[in-house]
Design brief:
Helix content: 55-70%
Shape: elongated
Low-confidence stretches: 300-317
Number of helices: 14
Strand content: 5-15%
Radius of gyration: 26 Å
Strand order of the largest sheet: 3-2-1-4-5
Number of strands: 5
Mean pLDDT: 88
Largest sheet: 5 strands, mixed
């Protein structure tokens, strides 16, 4: 027996509504036409609803074609799979930066997929589960000490490179949100707001965000009192109050100004920052650092504070 009957007149409107509500696929057009021709008002209304679902599906299919166009073009150009790359967690005061890389199979149609920032948490979780099951994906992290050493921008690039290197097969090209990944051999393109323009970047955005949220929930249990499981390390009023009350935790980014003001970093690092601030030329900077690799020490001392970095670099040029 077909899932959707041709003889809708023999079915009550309630049973027909139940069929539409519980169906996993869009009803056939013939079913819709029979409903619209039915003398019962309730059946005709149901037919109009089915017609609306069909219009919505056409719009979704058209959006998906646009959303996957760039990676299809790139895949044809390089004759191989294309991976999307994105990161989460550049701005928080605590926790790692998490990046993801994702290669979507050509036959995949994940119509709800979108920029992770536009999705509700439960929608991201559902999509992440499907992406883990149906795509080739990998996660890369940059830990707090690496953020301290490299600065957030370069630590984010490191996390992205690790995500790409973690894929089970090498992509032929990369599509990256807003930048390009250093030290990888394949061609790539950086797209401003790429997670809103390209499906594979959006997939990486969702995977990175969901993975980082899970990490911050676990870190919230390890370091109670800060509320990491709620704000994910971002500088909310609740987080700043806890930071002032408890002082920095081991997972706080000591170079970020609110953390530094709360006593972040070792006393030696704070003294180094002060000495670097007083340096008037490169020679004085090298003397303070005690090494000829002064620029590396400079980044360590002032990471996460671009205004201070710009001021100091201008002073010692």
């Amino acid at each position: 027996m077909p899932l959707f009957p041709e003889d809708v007149a023999a079915w009550s409107v309630g049973r027909l509504e139940g069929l539409v509500r519980e169906a996993r696929t869009l009803p056939p057009r013939s079913f819709e036409e029979h409903l619209l021709a039915d003398p019962r008002q309730g059946a005709r209304r149901l037919g109009e609803r089915v017609a609306g679902l069909r219009r919505d599906r056409r719009r979704e299919n058209a959006r998906w074609r646009r959303f996957t166009q760039l990676e299809r073009d790139w895949s044809k150009r390089v004759e191989g799979p294309v991976a999307g790359v994105d990161e989460a967690g550049m701005g928080p005061l605590a926790g790692p930066i998490v990046a993801a890389a994702a290669m979507l199979p050509p036959e995949l149609r994940l119509l709800p997929l979108d920029d992770s920032k536009k999705l509700k948490p439960e929608e991201r979780e559902e999509l992440a589960g499907q992406l883990r099951e149906k795509s080739d994906w990998a996660i890369g992290l940059a830990e707090v000490d690496e953020i301290a050493m490299l600065n957030p921008h370069h630590a984010g690039l490191l996390a992205m490179r690790r995500a790409v290197e973690g894929l089970s097969r090498e992509p032929a090209a990369l599509l990256v949100d807003a930048r390009t990944v250093p030290e990888v051999a394949m061609p790539q393109e950086g797209l401003i707001k790429g997670d809103a323009k390209c499906a594979c970047i959006a997939a990486a955005s969702v995977l990175a965000k969901v993975h980082r949220d899970g990490l911050m929930e676990e870190l919230g249990r390890r370091h109670p009192g800060y509320g990491f499981e709620k704000h994910r390390g971002y500088g909310t009023a609740e987080h700043l109050e806890a930071l002032a009350r408890l002082g920095p935790s081991p997972i706080h980014r000591v170079g970020y100004l609110p953390v530094a003001e709360a006593g972040g970093g070792t006393s030696a690092l704070r003294e180094l920052r002060a000495a670097l601030s007083a340096a008037k030329d490169l020679g004085a900077l090298e003397k303070v650092a005690g090494t000829d690799n002064a620029h590396k020490i400079l980044r360590l001392a002032i990471h996460g504070n671009p205004r201070f970095e710009a001021t100091l670099c201008n002073r010692i040029k």
